[in-house]
Task: structure prediction
Amino acid sequence: MRNTMILWVVMLLIALPINAQSLENIDEIAPYSEGLAAVRKGSQWGFINEEGTLVIDFRDDVYSSQNADASKSDISGIGYPMFNEGLCVITETIEDGVPVFGFIDTTGAVVFEPQFLNIYPFHNGYTTGVLFDKTFKGKNEFQLKIYDYKFFDVMLNTSGKVTDYFERRDYILLTLKRYEMPEIRAKVLHVGVVAIYNPEQGWKIKKVQTKN
Result:
C-alpha cells in the first residue's frame, strides 16, 4: 500500500508540468510594459503577465502598426501594444474606414470607447487628443440619416473622463482617400498647465483643474 501511494505521488509530480498552462503558435511577442506583454496570434493580440499567464484574452481591437514613426509621440509612434499608466490603445474604424482610438485597462475592460482621431500618451494621469463627436440629427426627405460632426482638442484622465474641451476643429475630412490624421493642438506641459495652439493666434497657456 505504501509503495502504491509513493508511485501515485511520483506520477502526479511528473504530470504537473504537462498540465501547466502553455501558449503555442504565437506569432509575435512585444516587450513588457507595466508588468504585461502583448502576444499576437494572427491579427489578434492578448496579454500575458510576468509569470507567462494569459490575463487578457486575444482580441481584434488592440492597436499596433508596422508603419510606426518612432520620432512621433502621438498615435503615429505606436508600433506594438503597450500599457501606459494602466491603459492600452484600442481601435476601430468609422465612416469610410477612418480609424478612431480608445483605451482598455489591465483587466481588458474598456475605459474609453474608440472616439479619438489622435492622442498623446498619458503622463501623471492626463493627456490630450482630438475627439470625434457624431450626433444624430434626424432624417431627410429620402429617409437617410443626418449626422452632425464635431471635432475638439480635449484633455482626458486615466479615470475615463474628458475633463476639458479646448479649440473646436474644422476641416477634418472623414473620407479615407483624403483623410490625414490631425495633429493635436493641445499639450499638457505640467500638472494643471496646458498649451493650446490656434493657427491664427499661435500658442496660449491655460491653467486647468486636475481633479478626477
